[in-house]
Write a structure and sequence with these properties.
This protein has twelve helices and 19 strands. The strands form five sheets. An eight-stranded mixed beta sheet has the order 4-15-12-11-16-17-19-18, with helices on both faces. A hairpin with an 8-residue loop joins strand 13 and strand 14. The chain is globular and about 55 Å long. The structure holds S-adenosylmethionine.
Length: 442
Amino acid sequence: MASFSFSFSGDDIEDDGAIGTTQDAAGPSSSSALSVQGLQALSIQGASLVTPTSSAAPAATAFPVPHKPQLPPQCHDLQGMLSKLPSKIAFSLLDVVLDVRAESSAPIGANGGTSAAREEPCLIRLPRRELWDVKVQLMAEEEAEDDESGNAQELAPGLGEHDVKTGIYEGGFKSWESSVDLVKVLLQPPASVSTPEPALSAVAGAVLSQDGPAHVIELGCGTALPSLALFHWACATAPSAASTTPFRRSHQLSITVADYNPSVLYLVTLPNFLLTWALQQRDANPLVQQALSFEDADGSGNVSGELELTDEVKDAFCAFLTSARVTLSFLSGGWSAAFVDLLYGLSTADAGPPPHTLVLGAETIYSPFALESFSVLLLTILQRETGTSTRAMAVVGAKKLYFGVGGSLDDFVQRMREAGVVVNELREEADGVRRGVVQCLL
Ligand SMILES: C[S@@+](CC[C@H](N)C(=O)[O-])C[C@H]1O[C@@H](n2cnc3c(N)ncnc32)[C@H](O)[C@@H]1O
């Protein structure tokens, strides 16, 4: 197996010449503000696809920016993050139509379903905090800070005009196309028409339906749609759940979500988990029902809404996590050896058998630097997992080619195979920018 190690630095970037130039550090008008064809984000408002904010010729990118250290890895405490949220958050719903169930690969039994497949399209509605609501929160926080310091400050990076701002903000506030593809690979329509909730796919079931605890790690999560989809399933199948889903989980499920920017984690990732729980639980919990309101202003089906975040609602969320045997962990900072140490520091705290681990990554290989650092990180994790769980597995979604910046799914697959990883293609999407989802097994 080929060796791999964390060795990236600003100098490496300059040395290989392929990724960046010193111009990258010069300022936003040059290449540090990256807007690239092929890096298309989903509109935060709904399901429509939008092109990036600028169609200017893509420039080379460097991350980390030379002489600028990456953000150090950091673990964020759930209570601390909850305390930073405002009293109300606004959201919209993203409908993801799940692929038709492939009976041959359906994990009959994984979720307990046995009867005939449904024919109508099955969708999962995933909530996302509205970007305008994030901006409102930040403006209020900055006003309060300015009043104290007397200095006017800028909005958080990523809430301005750029999709990615190299080394500062790496795209996590928006949802990117491949994250939707990953949702479709992880969930499938229920086996039975009498069951409203989507079921785990064979791929996800191979890890999450094993006997014993499970750990989902989403790297470069941003709005975290794939983890939200699995969290939705986890809420519906919680040992205590009052839903019609026949399958009940009995083991602990840990979900670790990681993004470069701490601001992304507390402003969108955590709120999206809260919203997913609230939407899934609203029929069973009167408190949640009272806290949620919906609006379909133009009657078009584009539903938006608000969730009141009273102390009682936050307490109910935390109590549910405990009773549902779900742990949420939030990590920020650059991918590095220290990041891996922090990640494994989380799980050594838990006694009991090692978990079966599923690593997820959507749109995390969008430049040669990102591809290399993500590959090294993934290989390190897979190698640590082999020997603990039955077989370490990752599911990675990306565009076939990131025009202008380099980075492609084929390059990633080749990099993985050279390191001895078995790579299986799970899904291809030719609609719009060509994309794929692959499974990596070590
Ligand atoms: C284009 S966004 C994709 C976000 C999300 N997965 C999606 O598909 O919607 C890329 C993500 O990778 C993370 N990322 C990229 N390079 C990173 C690095 N070197 N260290 C840590 N995170 C990184 C960013 O924070 C960002 O969330």
